[in-house]
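Objective 1b. Sequence-to-structure analysis of Long-chain fatty acid--CoA ligase.
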Amino acid sequence: MPYSAGDWPTLPAMMLARAAQWADRPLFRHWRHGGWQSLRWGDFALEVAAVAAFLRARGINPGDRVLLVSENRPEFPIADTAIMAIGAITVPTYTTNLATDHAHILRDSGARAAVVSTRKLAEKVLEGAALANGLDLLICTEDPPAAPGLETHRWQEALATPGDVAALAAEAAIAPADSLACLIYTSGTGGLPKGVMLPHRALLANRAGVLPLAKRLELDGKCYLSFLPLSHSYEHTVGGFLLPSVGLEVVYSRGADRLSHELAEIKPAVITAVPRLFEVLRGRILGGLEKETPFKRKLFDKAVELGLRRMDGPPLGIFERLQDLVLDKLVRDKTRARFGGQLQAMVSGGARLDPDLSGFFIALGLPVIQGYGQTEAGPVISVNLPWANRRHTVGPPLKGVECRIAEDGELLVRGDLVMTGYWNNPEATAAALQTPPGEDRPWLHTGDVGVIEDGNLRITDRKKDFIKTLGGDMVSPAKVESLLMAEPEIHQAIVAGEGKPALVALVVPADGMADRVAEAIRRVNGKLATIERIRHFTPTEPFTIENGLLTPTMKVKRRAVIEARQGEVEGLYR
């Protein structure tokens, strides 16, 4: 079956077509010089054409890889689109990367050039380039650091280059849909990151799959608050291309510490976040509730109770329905107002969202929906629907996505959204993409174990992450860790026990909660089967990006933690 291109063959073709259609509409809003600045679609196209012309003049050719290291700001999508428009391949990279991380990506991708937002980030990239012995061109939005033998330029030089928007758009419109758009290096939970080869058709397939949802929600003309890093595959696809193309203005958040204020100020229709942020937001709501009167706390608790009953049953009686209507005005309206009052979707992705956590927000009238995906699949595979939210699942597959469960329980995925393979890694590609005899398109082996229930996907664990105890029992660490981190007393947790008589846990207590962790673990153990219960635990130092135990999207690298803190784990068995 041939791959289909959809309305446009490439991402730049789509973005430049939208710019011609919506020239005077706002595209990006960002904080600069003490206030919000706006960039229109028409100006975006002019800057893309200028940067594309500048890169060409500096010898960047089709197929060349270009590193892109930047915070969420308009320069990121401008450079991203310009690189792709001339047939080169973007390599988005986290701003939190160490020099050794940059060295690995530069060495593996063979990137010749880098576009970097700040001088400080440029210095880190150059450290990596020195280790990798490669890089010909560096463009920086600030004065670039001295780099003998390397061609360096300021971003303003690129913007000053004469460009031809119409010619660039015409060129992008005839490029092959299966040509590579970007290499995104998976952060993973252990081992060196692999470069996922995503063609234009994969990201455009994600757009086609989400389009019915966007149309039903009538998102055109509304705001999206961009919080996750644009270098992450989800934000790169959804915040970088998908949502702008359906008419949302993208507002770049200034960071987690300002998010609560920005929600009330920006009044977004859509935000996306990782589960950890939802845990933090719940903690803030509950913390603020402690300052209220007993009567208000009782109203809040009742609103949550009845909201959960509406979802899970048993059905509300007549009096309870009346109570629920009153509580909607007294409690839920105030909670919705704290989030801007116009939210139509709060999308969680990147890791499993505990149903109790999502249920808390849904019961308060906030539209939390969980999606599921992988970098190797564009990355969106499925998403819950606000009007049919099955919070114990990750929703139905997107339109055009085929899913099936293998004999060993692994979820397999097929469709235009699937990657071409891993860059310079044929062995890993062959393991991940397998075409059965008699079929003409490969299935992506996700490595996730799941089931399909009434058309919805439910992910139960990672195929390789089951713990086999000394007694031969197979235990899901993801389930236990999720329950532990849902407790307010626990900030982070990792479970171990491979080949041991029972499970143990390394626990990072929440601030000021160290003396209450034992009680939290007793509560969790009460929800678990005997073989799943935590026998012993010990407090440990936080898992952070800086110590290499946390990914940039706040996922704990469980294998790396167990390896790095093996002494602590073994001590729990003595």
